[in-house]
């Protein structure tokens, strides 16, 4: 989902309907405001874009885009047989409109908004401790299958004091005289 930076507090959801491509009108918008999204331009670069008066419709699994709203704000949209494109009012930015089946869509980076991505580079001992004192050999194997897990430095196993203490056993404090005796 997109990040809304400002909401229109005068918006009344029950008085607003959305007209779908098939002509049906539905009332599903819960709010209206300005939202920040990242959209890929014709060069493949992600561009931060502010959509003014966007509708917040959490019941839709996908974000939808209003051609009418874009053109009313001065942007232009062209649909050709094998190409569709959105251009900003000043024509400095062009965004390809992709097609899947009978639906057109803008290539947005919604996942970048919702998900934090972490890439850590640590030595073997640090990863061993971070992963709950996981076996050193298993940590080395994880580097090849886990995105963002990067080992730096030598991959030599060292003594881990915590693991050594965890493997210690207590001394026997007394001898058992018969099998039913309590210790």
Automatic annotation (TrEMBL):
InterPro entries: GAG-pre-integrase_dom, PolX-like_BBD
Domain GAG-pre-integrase: 102-168
Domain Retrovirus-related Pol polyprotein from transposon TNT 1-94-like beta-barrel span(s) in chain numbering: 4-74
Pfam families linked: gag_pre-integrs (PF13976), Pol_BBD (PF22936)
Top-level lineage group: Eukaryota
Name under which the protein is recorded: GAG-pre-integrase domain-containing protein
Origin species: Elysia crispata (lettuce slug)
């Amino acid at each position: 989902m997109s990040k809304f930076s400002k909401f229109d507090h005068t918006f009344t959801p029950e008085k607003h309907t959305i007209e779908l491509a098939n002509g049906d009108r539905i009332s599903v918008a819960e709010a209206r405001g300005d939202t920040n999204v990242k959209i890929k331009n014709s060069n493949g670069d992600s561009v931060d874009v502010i959509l003014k008066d966007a509708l917040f419709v959490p019941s839709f699994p996908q974000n939808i885009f209003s051609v009418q709203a874009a053109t009313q704000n001065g942007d232009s949209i062209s649909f050709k047989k094998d190409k569709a494109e959105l251009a900003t009012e000043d024509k400095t930015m062009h965004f390809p409109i992709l097609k899947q089946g009978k639906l057109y869509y803008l290539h947005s980076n919604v996942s970048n908004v919702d998900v934090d991505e972490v890439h850590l580079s640590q030595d073997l001992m640090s990863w061993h401790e971070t992963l709950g004192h996981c076996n050193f050999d298993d940590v080395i194997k994880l580097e090849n299958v886990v995105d963002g897990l990067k080992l730096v430095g030598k991959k030599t196993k060292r003594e881990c004091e915590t693991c050594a203490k965890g493997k210690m056993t207590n001394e026997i404090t007394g001898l058992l005289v018969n099998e039913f005796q309590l210790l």
